[in-house]
Design brief:
Mean pLDDT: 92
Distance between the termini: 21 Å
Helix content: 25-40%
Strand order of the largest sheet: 1-10-7-6-5-4-3-2
Low-confidence stretches: none
Largest sheet: 8 strands, parallel
Shape: globular
Number of strands: 10
């Protein structure tokens, strides 16, 4: 599905919403709350990434879950599922409106259903450490992920983006769950703390290999996201010898800005790292899906798309 052509992924939805004046930090639902309070704002962000050159739009479901909506919005289970559906519909509507213009007619754009880690629902930054993995059983994680995954799939996503996963154990748990939906494809991307290890401390190359071995053809790409861009090249270089060639298993990379996320404070401590100098190198190392995560907005995606177009 993602082999061959370079695909431009969108950027950070929540951080772009913040630039538009929305407050999400510290909210246990993060940007998913805006599905209920101002869905048009989410659609506007999707449109801005499309105009910047994105070929893949991710849904506003990273921190969304059936349980989360019931606990923090007071919804019924049916209402919670409707909000999951809405995250897909907004992406589809933005793509339809963008593609219906004469200039963009016929351009293929995919909808990737965002499946964030279990730690995201804790709203305590543990998604960046994986600290919860030793405290939560695989079955508990499955029970949390299953209904959100099922809702996104039934709403018609083209594939799933299993993203910002800090630990191999959770990655394998989700991929095991993916087998319950044999007709869907997914990419899986880890969050990493340096040029070798995931945020939880797993060797990235070995973790990526184990994921491929478990998921087989259901895994259409593997890589890294929401990690400092200065680590991406090293991670790809170390992982590539352990993985099938990119023509068989493409790599996906979408780093954050290189700044630090601090629980209770948000993004701080530093400025954007010059990731644009590395895009060609990432592509040469097998990344056929390249985009941005937190703190990388439409302007950054436009730079990435322009760089890829010039290769």
């Amino acid at each position: 599905m993602l082999r061959g052509r370079p695909w431009i992924l969108d950027g950070g939805l929540a951080s772009t919403l913040q630039e538009d004046g929305f407050s999400v930090d510290g909210d246990p639902l993060w940007s998913a709350r805006i599905l209920a309070t101002n869905p048009d704002a989410i659609k506007k962000v999707h449109a801005s990434f499309l105009e910047a050159g994105a070929d893949i739009i991710t849904t506003a479901s990273y921190q969304a879950s059936i349980v989360g909506f019931k606990d923090h919005l007071g919804t019924t289970e049916d209402e919670a599922r409707r909000l999951m559906d809405l995250s897909v519909e907004l992406a589809q509507e933005a793509i339809h409106e963008y593609s219906s213009t004469l200039h963009n007619e016929g351009k293929k754009v995919l909808v990737a259903g965002s499946i964030g880690p279990y730690g995201a629902c804790q709203a305590d930054g543990s998604e960046y450490t994986g600290a919860y993995v030793s405290k939560v059983t695989p079955e508990d994680m499955k029970e949390w992920h299953r209904p959100r995954m099922a809702a996104l799939i039934s709403s018609g996503v083209d594939l799933l983006a299993i993203e910002t996963i800090p630990a191999l154990e959770e990655a394998l748990t989700i991929l095991n769950l993916l087998r319950e939906f044999p007709d869907i494809r997914a990419w899986l991307s880890f969050s990493c703390k340096d040029g070798k290890y995931t945020n939880y401390g797993d060797n990235f190359g070995e973790a990526a290999k184990k994921c491929y071995e478990m998921a087989g053809d259901q895994l259409v790409a593997v890589g890294v996201n929401c990690s400092p861009p200065q680590y991406i090249t090293s991670l790809l270089e170390k992982a590539n010898p352990t993985l099938p060639p990119p023509s068989i298993l493409p790599r996906v990379v979408y780093p954050n800005s290189g700044e630090e996320w601090i629980a209770g404070k948000g993004w701080a401590n530093g400025s954007k790292w010059p990731y644009d100098n590395e895009v060609k190198k990432w592509f040469s190392l097998g990344a056929s899906v390249i985009g941005g995560c937190c703190r990388l907005g439409p302007r950054d995606i436009r730079i990435i798309a322009s760089t890829v177009a010039s290769m």
